[in-house]
Amino acid sequence: MCDDMYDGFEPYGTNDFDAGLSDDAFESYDELPLDQRILQDYPAPFDTGALYDLYSDCALCPRACHVNRNAGELGYCGASAKVHVARAALHYWEEPPISGDSGSGTVFFAHCQLQCVYCQNAQISRPHIDPEKNAWLKVNVSAQDLAQMFLNLESEGANNINLVSATQYTPTVVDALHIARSRGLKVPIVYNTGGYETVETLRLYNGLVDVYLADFKHYNSDAAKRYAHAPDYPRVVLKALDEMVAQTGAPEYEDLATGETIMTHGTIVRHLLLPGRGDEAERIVSYLGTEFGSRIVVSLMSQYIPLVNSDKYPEISMPVDSVDYDNLVDHACLFDFDECFIQDSDSADTGYIPDFSGQGLIGSPS
Ligand code: SF4
What we know:
10-stranded mixed sheet, 366 residues, globular, TIM Barrel, 17% strand, 12 strands, binds iron/sulfur cluster, alpha/beta
């Protein structure tokens, strides 16, 4: 096994912004109070009206449904312009430089643009979520609410704010990030995504997101069509990863007073090995090693749980073969990754799927 692999991480894996500041208002950046220094590090005030207009003709993800979500129309993902959050809580099972010991301040958003048949968070990711079984669906979360949730997580000790599947709510999330920074949020922002992203939407996060935690699910278009209903996934994810790495640069870390070492900038690319798909996984690792090498961190996941319809997808209705996983890890050793995280063999356990019952939620009746 390579020396630089960490074995054993647990699975899982404003515009009051302007606040009177202007570029020439201060003699010295270092003389500013800390919260105002944070403000200067983030993009200039923006037109939130234009931002929220993006819901009116939605092309926030590659599905480009062009529905008017502000008028209540729903696209492929099933999300309206009302933001729904299933859980906002400390999470301890991401990669070590994300969770650390104190936990990652993870915010799980409802719905998803991908709809993978093997999704472990299917309770909250499907277009149709049962409001009787998921009371949090009856809560509408505004940008102000979301910003307060971020600040609450930080005060609970979160090492970062970890936005899980936020793409469909990008206008509100971007607004909330500006609000939270203007109110003193200091921890890094992690954007946790399935990798099916447009470059245009990612650019709305430029300067706001510090760490991308992105899946690279499929290299093969037929597999992407069968398992994620997105035959264009391979083409899309390659461009998206280029944009993410361009935004974050190479991995950077900070040693905290608590003794934890946390990633402050960079891109972690995850691949979840599926049963019988070792060859595709090796092609993904080869691409990442050749294209990015030490500019990214790679995370090879063995936590696949066969939650699929076994009649329809018999070929992936079993656990991953440990020999396939070991071969994938050996393959990764051929490349110059900055770090490569691997998982224990007991990671595939439904006990690691979070409880989605609206923890940490702030909002008003929907
Ligand atoms: S975010 Fe949802 S509604 Fe918008 S383009 Fe994507 S799938 Fe369609």
